[in-house]
Specification:
With 101 residues, the protein is mostly beta strands. It has no helices and 8 strands. The chain has a 4-stranded antiparallel sheet with strand order 2-1-5-8, with no helix packed on it. Strands 3-4 form a two-stranded antiparallel sheet.
Amino acid sequence: MTPPEPNAIRVTVLRERDEQAPDLDAPTLGMAAVRLERGANSAKIRLTKPAGPESQRSSAVTIYAFSLAEQREQSKLITRHIDLPSSGKPTEITWNGESLL
């Protein structure tokens, strides 16, 4: 088993009043996966980069969301690029059921 990466980006999901871990979390690969059910209300994805002397630069992050449509050919892949600050301050991205805000 690989030891936890001390500078890994922490991912949490905020659904209504609950804070949850991602469905799949692989910080050594820099990946996390979250499943949001169709018809569910909005959810927030909170990303946090640990503050510290070894993380003085912001980190570029790409978020992908695959949105399934009733007509499968209308399904789409949504991409959002953000920079996480090195301050340790969390960044929240909102999923409204159709797009990443």
